[in-house]
Amino acid sequence: MSFQTEPSYQHGSASRSAIVLVNLGTPDAPTRSAVRRYLKEFLSDPRVVEIPRAVWWFILNLIILPFRSGQSAAKYQTIWTPEGSPLKIYTAAQAKLLEAALLQRGHSDLKVVMAMRYGSPALPEVLKQLKAEGINRIAVLPAYPQYSGTTTGSIYDAAFQHYGTVRNIPELRFVRNYHDNEAYIHALRDSVLAHWDQHGQPDKLVLSFHGVPKRTLMLGDPYHCECLKTARLLAASLQLTPDQYMVTFQSRFGKAEWLQPYTAPTVAQLARDGVKRLDVLCPGFTSDCLETLEEISLEVRHEFEQAGGQQFHYIPCLNDSPAWIAAMADIIEPHLIGWPTRLAASEREAQQKDAQVARAAALERGATD
């Protein structure tokens, strides 16, 4: 086995730390070819699809990619902005703002970058670049509040596979989940209350989480339970009674049974049952993306209105809201304990003062001479 070539190293180099904010990913463009590349990488992950590889290869390459790529590209075109993919835009903003928030808390020697599990910037490439910059302590912060083997577990896989080819591995820390983190729940609460302050309160609030096959729950994946706990804590924070909200699961794919109830048919039934005003929030997504802006805000809205509903409100994701940036800082800060993110800055300040004294002394000697 051969390892990657190590960057040049000098003994005595100061330790440097970084946070990598990792989101799911997005195509590079809303085109059939770009979406096909993205879907192939995403759906080839055995964490995402647990079907024997030989069987799945034929299904993916001969059935799904030829037909789904064009359909998905058309959907991406409905949400694409002049700056690019909303998910990528918001994730980049979150990384930049998180670094600024941690700087205000005194972490002046700490870099925050984003990476994508699928697509670009690819997580292995980001980790490689950090190593080239002399970073030897890395904290990985998934953009998924609720743990699932299909999401957070896949990030672990990608990181470990990358470092399986690295001789000098940095110190690593991983945030596993934050589905019940108080700051995260409060950020969600604030976003809902801000929407209600402007638009009034609905007949019912639907909390729609991304779905996964029911089989994963039966095999021990904690995702379903963590989604329900997030919903329960958020409802309590909003002082909602059980009849004022409900949990659903979206983005079902294939013929297998997924976590239920499914969002779209449930929303349509609510309209038929007489619900006139419905609000939908997607707590499992920290950045707006195809699944929220197109699937929920467009497709599910249409289902509700077609079934007789009168008012449908999609409440945006946390995105770059100040409450969420502060919550991210609260979530990651305990994982930085023991790392010299403050000490290194103090040392640099002392070195700068020493250099200023040395320059002043040199100037004084020059004047005396």
Summarize the structure.
This protein has 369 residues and is α/β, with parallel strands linked by helices. It is built from twelve helices and eight strands.
What value does the Rg take, in angstroms?
A: 24 Å
- CATH first level of the largest domain: Alpha Beta
The total domain count is 2
Number of beta-strand segments: 8
Alpha-beta content class: alpha/beta
Biggest β-sheet strands, sense, barrel = 4 strands, parallel
Continuous helix count: 12
Secondary-structure element pattern, one letter each: EHHHEHEHEHEHHEHEHEHH
CATH topology (fold) name of the largest domain = Rossmann fold
Mean pLDDT: 93
Q: In CATH terms, what is the architecture of the largest domain?
A: 3-Layer(aba) Sandwich
Distance between the termini: 63 Å
Into which percentage range does the β-strand content fall?
5-15%
Which strand order does the major sheet show? Answer: 2-1-3-4
Helix content: 40-55%
Oligomer: single chain
Shape: globular
Which ranges are low-confidence, i.e. pLDDT below 50, for 5 or more consecutive residues? none
Subcellular location: Cytoplasm
GO molecular function, one term: lyase activity
Catalytic activity: Fe-coproporphyrin III + 2 H(+) = coproporphyrin III + Fe(2+); heme b + 2 H(+) = protoporphyrin IX + Fe(2+)
Binding site for Fe(2+): 210, 291
